[in-house]
Amino acid sequence: MLKKNEERNIPFKCKRSWCSNPFIIVMIMLSLVVSGSILEEPPVFAASSTESTAAETTAAVKLPSIGSLNLSIRSAVLVEPVTGQVLLSINADKAYAPASMTKMMTGYIVADTVKKGEISWNDVVTIKENASKTIGSRVYLAQGETHTVKELYTAMLVHSANDAAVALAEYVSGSEQQFVTRMNEEAKRMGMIHTSYINASGLDRLDMPKPFRPKENGENLMSAMGVATLVTAIIQDHPEILEITSIPSYQFRSSDREPLRNTNWMLESNASNPQYKQFAYEGLDGMKTGFTDSAGYCFAGTAERDGMRLISVVMGTESMTKRFTETKKVLDYGFDHFEVKQVAAANSTAKGVESAPVKDGVNTEVPVITEQAVHFIVPKGADPSQLPIQTRIEVDTLTAPFHAGIKAGTITYTYQMEGIDQVQEKTVNLIASDQMEKGGWLRLMFRSIWEFFAGLF
Q1: Catalytic residue (choose from 160, 173, 246, 355)
Q2: Which position among 138, 177, 198, 351 has the lowest Cβ density within 10 Å, counted as fewest Cβ atoms?
Q3: Where in the chain is the domain with CATH 2.60.410.10?
Q4: Looking at domain 17-58+343-454, does it have CATH number 2.60.410.10?
Q5: What is the mean pLDDT of the chain?
Q6: Residue among 103, 128, 322, 329 flagged as catalytic
Q7: Is 100 labeled as catalytic in the residue annotation?
Q8: pLDDT digits (tens, 9 = 90+) for 47-70
Q9: Domain 73-317 annotated CATH 3.40.710.10
Q10: pTM beyond 0.85, yes or no
């Protein structure tokens, strides 16, 4: 009897018939020796999907509560447009009257139409009855008067001219209501839920010229989140609009006694304007104010500092100045407590996936790297290497021959900030960093023999 922990020395006995054949044994040993000089041992790869997590944050940055901002608004939202991260949200999905923030959709469509070559900025527009009878903030367009698309566009975005918005809508689509159909289609395409338009200006239905009101009852409606989505689309698709929204004043007609003043008092350029310098905000270059009795005072603003752009929306404030003071609180909250950090560099080796398997190649694996960089918005001052970043890896088997840069899989990074509900996620391709030639027949034959016999033991 063996004592506990005592090993038994039992000789190995092969039960397969070929074990007693000396010629076969010699061939096996020869193939193993030769293959060892021709090829490396095939790598062992983990499962195609893995999870890894970086070390937990050593000292989480404490964010102030939203309530501590003491915002006096109906709804508000703060978004970082590159990652889409929502940093602040108050009734952000509830629809309210947007007033002249509606004109941003008009501006988007006009810019898109120019970009497609359907119209030109230099096209001359003849003012029709609808525009000439439009009230509210306006440049007093007269029927038969002519202006270029660019002139009307600038008056609309800088001075919030309702009549200019109507004139542009009619020029692009033939009638304002046909243009409105396109506005609603664009809102749907952008994913702007809780959004509907009845005109190009943002006026309440009863304030529109009676002959040109839509037959159906309804009003312009947008949520703060919908407004932020629209501003994001403008910045991404038509960033040149910021060159217009940042103009502090504009001489519409040479005969006008004074230039049109931008309704946005928070422009950084107003720092030297005695009338508005108390509202001037560093880095702010857009986007659009709004007011009607039903909407209250609204403002969609965007500013960029240290390479990070933020979009803020406040709706339903109680005064003209309040929409700017509340916007400052929202933007300060973002710039004071968050920043965009790179968590993975482009063309770098990702942790947990250094290579991908290769079939029929000179080698059995190839190094892989990330195709793009990954950026997340993080608490200001946080060390990216210490953030709880999760990764999900999927690696494909490549068949030689192939060139460097071929897709070899994907890696998905996810991160959730403490105190923020939304999870940030970014998937990038893993690509082969080297090219791979097809292996010779002798190499591939011995590799197959190696793999066959390796599976027998």
Answers
A1: 160
A2: 351
A3: 17-58+343-454
A4: yes
A5: 87
A6: 103
A7: yes
A8: 344 444 443 334 545 788 899 999
A9: yes
A10: no
